[in-house]
Specification:
three-stranded mixed sheet; mainly alpha; YefM-like fold; 3 domains; about 10% strand; about 150 residues
Length: about 150
């Protein structure tokens, strides 16, 4: 999040445009209430009071499903959204109300050894017979596909 005065002012104006109360602006930006109120009044003087007032924030991701956000929110707060993705949240991005993209954490990739690497390991340190039977029981013919 931007910490410069102009960055805070810009973000406060964006929040006020969405109808955020001064208290929510204070909470979102981590600034004193008096500063949030001053910025809110400045926005109201230039643009008029918001038609719709937001008094509570949407709850944090309560379900296991993705959070739906408009592309504008992704554009305006991409760093914040990506921090949430890194923390494990998933998002559905919409354009004009249509779902167009999914954004989520990269799945952990399995690390497999190549067949030639596995064969080299088995040549250097052969497995005991019981362990080899256990592997064959679990993997069957799939070991040839590695």
């Amino acid at each position: 999040m931007e910490k410069s005065a102009s960055g805070i002012k810009r973000r406060a104006f964006q929040l006020r445009e969405k109808g955020f109360t001064y208290a929510l602006i204070e909470k979102q930006l981590g600034i004193p209430y008096a500063e949030a109120k001053k910025l809110g009044h400045e926005y109201d003087a230039r643009h008029g009071k918001p038609r719709k007032v937001v008094r509570t924030l949407a709850p944090e991701s309560t379900g296991s499903g993705p959070i739906t956000i408009p592309v504008r929110e992704l554009r305006n707060d991409s760093a914040g959204i990506l921090r949430q993705v890194e923390a494990g949240r998933s998002f559905l991005i919409t354009v004009a109300g249509r779902e167009v993209a999914a954004l989520g954490p990269v799945a952990a990739r399995g690390r497999f050894a190549s067949k030639s690497a596995l064969e080299a390991i088995l040549r250097e340190a052969p497995l005991d017979d019981q362990f080899m039977r256990d592997i064959n029981d679990v993997l069957g013919e799939r070991i040839d596909q590695l």
